[in-house]
Batch of 2 targets.
Target 1
Amino acid sequence: MSERTIGTAGLRGRQRTVAQRDAQFGQLLLAPTLLVVVVVVVLPILWTFVLAFQDLRVIDLRRKGIFGSFTLDNFAAVFTSPGFWTALRTTLLFSVVGTLGSIGVGLIVSLALRRRFPGRTFVRASMLLPYVAPVVAVTFVWQTMLNPQFGIVNAVGTSVLGWDDPVAFLSQRSAPVSVFGVEIDVPVALLTVMAFEIWRYFPFAFLFLTARIAALPGDLEEAAVVDGATLSQRFRYVVFPQLLPTIALLAVLRFIFTFNEFDDIYLLTGGAAGTQVASVRVYDLLTARGDIGAASAQALVLAGVLVVLLAVYFRFVGRPTEADT
Amino acid sequence: MSTRPWTRDRVENVVFGVLRWVVIAVLVLATLLPFYYMIILSVRRLDEVVQRPGLLWPGSFDFSTYVSVLASPDAGGQGFVVFLRNSAVIALLTVVFTLLAAIPGAYAISRLEFFGRREVSTLFLAVYLFPAILLAVPLFVFFSAVGLRGSRVGLLVVYVAQTVPLSIYMLRNYFETVPVSLEEAAAIDGASRWTIMRRISLPLAMPAVVSNALYVFMIAWNEFLFALLFLAEDRPRWTVSLGLAQLAGSIEIPTTVLMAGSVLLTVPIIVLFFLTERLLVEGLTSGAEKG
């Protein structure tokens, strides 16, 4: 972070004008960005508050204009509808599993690839593919692979692994699975979507953890080796504590992104079979029902829940430092 | 054989040494298999896929899927040529406008001291963390109300707004690594701020600018939600992502043909990615190493 400005030498009066000119120039340079962000992001979000308190539908738009009378009905409808609470629960479950899973897998992979071996560069690059590839393409491939009629997963499952029937991974809400003789209902579609989420986003955690691991000072671990610490002990007491700040930051970022996730679920299941998360619900309210007020209220409640969760997290875990960002 | 005792240390070294390769093998399979499957399925014959779904190597190659997916609907195809062009145009324009705004913006944030600098940085970070769907509702309503929904200008503006903050963040990190002394030397020689930025800082930051341009291109090319909300009803304006998603639900179009479309959607991104992987990774994680 450079706080220095040019022109540290020179007369006091001249110095001030340089600083002033710099300040003006800085604001000028930033103006286009600020304009776009304010117009396309800040104002619309503020406007959502207005929309959420109106009874407005898409078909009314041209006729009624966009300013109607004030009402609390939308929020009342959001909180009293069973769909909202189900969606919220699904979103939370999905976010927690997706976050922990992607960070866990990312950590394991970054440790496995820590030591050099022939072809490591290629392996590292391929680990990032799920993250950079277009979401529409990868969801389509997953859908096809998991297809009960001609997908490769079910083909292998029934012919090699001895499944009785093909599994409808993306359209079956739940299935009984017996574990040690106990029948448990497993939410099939939701688990599949979570698996996809972990698959697609573990590279994100992998990327950041790999960078952090590469920057770890070697002497601490060498000292631990001399002291006779085993591999797992070195990880537990030397490496892991040094990765914690990065993991904490990743947890926050991944939780936010997973909580807001729309594309993956919409494209995989359309929100069917018990996978309707809050974002997909907002989309359905907006497009299928054309209910702008309800969609706005639901989106605001979603953002509100996220803010509260983050506030609680920062209160108890602590704020990520400037250096982490 | 060694006569060393099986201490905990030795057991762990053996166990984790094996596990390491298991992890690598499983993950390589998990990440690459879907892409391999995508390519293979795009050149298999549909009847063969249905009869022998477990095959990982096609019995015969059939490249007519690509012709079929690219050809215009009048010729019985799916019109992906138009979708590809739409995607390329909008992604390139997003890159141009984003960089035009982000380069000066990043320079200002990294080098110039002015009122509101910190607040603006925070605002940009916040933008990136807001749910896209929260933004989608008012933008959908606004563009519908003014009759701009379905216009690609609207979509472009949204893309730029979504990529500029991240772009500024990436470039800012890089501008900060350019030695201040270089700029000071130029200032003493009488160069103005604008000249310094254009002639000294920008050329030095070129690697970061290029990697950033590619990253923005990828985001715009891959984007789905806003394309869906704005352009869904207007088939000639569909992007490749939107086109594939819209057609994926249809029963009439063979999966192998759509798989060919999926390859066409993915290949440009993968090629760009492998060309610039190192630059991209450095640009994205430059903040993380500081710990």
Target 2
Amino acid sequence: MTASVLNFVVRYSPLLILALGWELVSRLGLVSSDALPPLTAVGAAWIDMMHDGDFLSNGFAAFYHSDLVVNGAASLWRAGAGLSLAIVIGGALGILMARWRAVNIVFGPIVEIFYPVPKSALIPVTIIWLGLGDGSKILLIFLGCMIPVTIGAFNGARAAEQTLVWSARSMGADRVRTLWDVVVPSALPELLNGIRTALALAFILLVSSELITSQNGFGYLIGSLGDNGSYDAMYAVVLTVALLGFAADRLYQMLMRRMLIWRQ
Amino acid sequence: MATVELTTSAPPSAARALHGALRFGVRIASVVALLVAWELLARSGLLTPYQLPALSTVLARIWHDAVAGDLVLNTWVTIIRAMAGFAIAAVGGVALGVAISRLPLARWFFDPIVSIGFPMPKIAFLPVIILWLGVYNVSKLTMIVFDAIFPVIAATVIAIQGVERELIWSARNMGASERELLWQVMLPAALPQVMTGLQVALPLALIVAVFTEMKMGGYGLGAAMMTASRFANSVGVFAGIVEIAVVGYVLVKAMSVVRRRLLIWHQEAAEPA
């Protein structure tokens, strides 16, 4: 027990050193406290943004009406909706492309053309189509995340062993059932890897589009706090987004291991 | 993505040329169909010209920009910016990756930083970078490097750790110095995976380059597109996406050509594409 705690401390001590360095550089006045507010001030600003009024008079509403929770919920809804659409539609497209040549002939070249498009360039286009609200951001995240999911599903489904497919068919499974019971599970590892790439992209596109234009969300909060010169609060939101991205990836990896536990 | 295979036996050269032309034709058919659909949909009156300007109008606008010289300047600025950031990230990422896998002190310090920094959306730090470095080239380049360096570091560390022990032992046995071991054995053996890391980093560098231009202005395709967007000039926006898409396509394709050239000695070059 103590050994593992010690291990943890040694492993993550560089982060502690960075945090201490940050605090010292700012406290000693080596850099202006506007450019780099002390980490403790950032922490205080974070706690400040996590409640609206105090808990005694407002109860639990103080938490869910707070700046961070309200804007965070708006952001997570956009990212979640766009990513879910991308997983469902992109995954289905990739698997169909791998199993039916006609689908591949039509969509293969289109996927290949869209793959290298820098997805941030779609921000102004989605604004033209769906305006400045949630719709344009969800569309952007959907379009950007779809390609890696499709490619993962395609590569995974194409590698499904043909003998397994034949056995399923000869044992009387129809096409749809074969697809669901044989092809999808064989495609799963690559599909899940594609979704992991998409998850990281979703955060990038979410924050980019919100920084360009938005009325709420993390990106909006970062921009407006920066414009007001509340740099300690701005740092607090930036770190929150960064840590959320990190946490989402770690949670997803745990989920992925769970889902692949049936493989050796 | 091979879509058609007409014959399995090796065809004579004329038939092979025909076969190649046919394959190419099938591959571009759906892209051409998409472009035609764009033109027809725009002309059908179902959408306003603001929502979807006709492809021909957009191409005319691109031609106009090209003649005026703006297109060349903006394309050049964006490519140079993205490639400079990518090059710094490539060299720095490989160097850091080698250091992490070879020096215990570097591993102790950088390993947790990389494992936390890689999955973070670094783009959220853009306002902080602007606060520190302003809105010009230095901050754009910093942001590109910050985003593109992590996949290179991670790929290099995994690649170097995966170099076959037998190769290292043989080289040592034959009297290779540490420097020779690194340059002549480890880096070449690590190259395929390092290239894969670079191929992840390049699209990221492009995404961030375009985004920083949109956010901070100045020259570049992203900035030009954002200006068009502010003036509700939808032809300009669609011209921008076509130009940026072409730049992205050319750079990503060039990268896979470089990979094939560099790894011509590797067994992957003999595998069917």
